[in-house]
Amino acid sequence: MKLNKYKHLNVNVFPTRDEMGHAAGRDVEARVAGLLQDRDEVRMVFAAAPSQNEMLDYLASSVLIDWGRVTAFHMDEYLGLNGGADQLFSKYLHRRLFSRIKMKKVWLIDGNADPAREAERYSALINEAPIDVICLGIGENGHIAFNDPPVADFNDPLTVKKVSLDRSCRMQQVNEGCFATLEEVPEEALTLTIPVIFNASNLFCVVPGRSKREAVYNTVNGPVTTACPASVLQRHPDCSFYFDTDSFGEL
After folding, report:
1. Which domains, from first to last, does the chain contain?
2. Between 178 and 21, where is the model more confident?
């Protein structure tokens, strides 16, 4: 169900998580296929989190997108995890999407490289051309990518930066079953900054789950503040939101 009470915001709420993810996937599919009618390449950024599972599964089965003309990036990566760790976001996206389709190019963040050099390398790749589409989520603390409230900057001069993850962010990774204990969750990561996300042309924000309800409320209803970094999405000219009733509340 599309809600019209949020000014220019495109807020869509669905009874189930599956319906939410498939609806988001269909809309991403239509937008990317439409863009490819007018240009040779589309540049996309993907979030890596269980919240994205259903949408990514839909996209992996799409026959309408010419994936051979899509260049992909991801939003963030842990620092210091073993290169073969299943929890790496690059590994997650490989399992869910990149191994199932043939893209023009997939650019991954190396969480075991020197952070300063890796941030510089990935920034150069991101800045080669505009980003057309970003598929993102919202954290329990309102973060987008790993821009937690203590480090979020709406006017960040950097493209990619090293950040310390706050406790609520790290605890979310345990709550979602990605790590067994808080101590196992890395304390640092590389992340795209908020201006990079905000400056993309088309945003598709997918957020299921009861644990996200406060963050969802603050994102679409609250003031625009780094206390809830995702609240800046209120100001984006083309951001579509996809919630289930667990994350949004009963209609």
Report:
1. 11-245 (3.40.50.1360)
2. 21
Question: What is the rounded distance in angstroms from the CA atom of residue 148 to the CA atom of residue 153?
Answer: 9
If phi > 0 it is left, if psi is from -120 to 50 it is alpha, else beta; for residue 97 that is alpha
CA 243-48-96 angle, to 5 degrees, is 95
16-44: per-residue pLDDT in tens?
Answer: 999 999 999 999 999 999 999 999 999 99
Residues 224-247: tens digit of each pLDDT? 999 999 999 999 999 999 999 999
Q: How many other C-beta atoms are found inside a 10 Å radius of the C-beta of residue 113?
A: 15
| Phi (first) and psi of residue 129, to 5 degrees | -160, 165
Token pair belonging to 14? 């669905």
Q: Full-prediction pTM beyond 0.90?
A: yes
- Secondary structure of residue 134 in the 3-state scheme: strand
Please, what is the average pLDDT of the chain? 93
Give the largest CA-CA distance in the chain: 48
Q: What would the DSSP string read from start to end of 7-42?
A: TT-EEEEESSHHHHHHHHHHHHHHHHHHHTTT-S-E
Question: Is 43 within 8 Å of 132 (Cβ atoms)?
Answer: yes
- String of DSSP letters for 172-239: HHHHTTS-SSGGGS-SEEEEE-HHHHHTSSEEEEEE-SGGGHHHHHHHHHS-SBTTBGGGGGGG-TTE
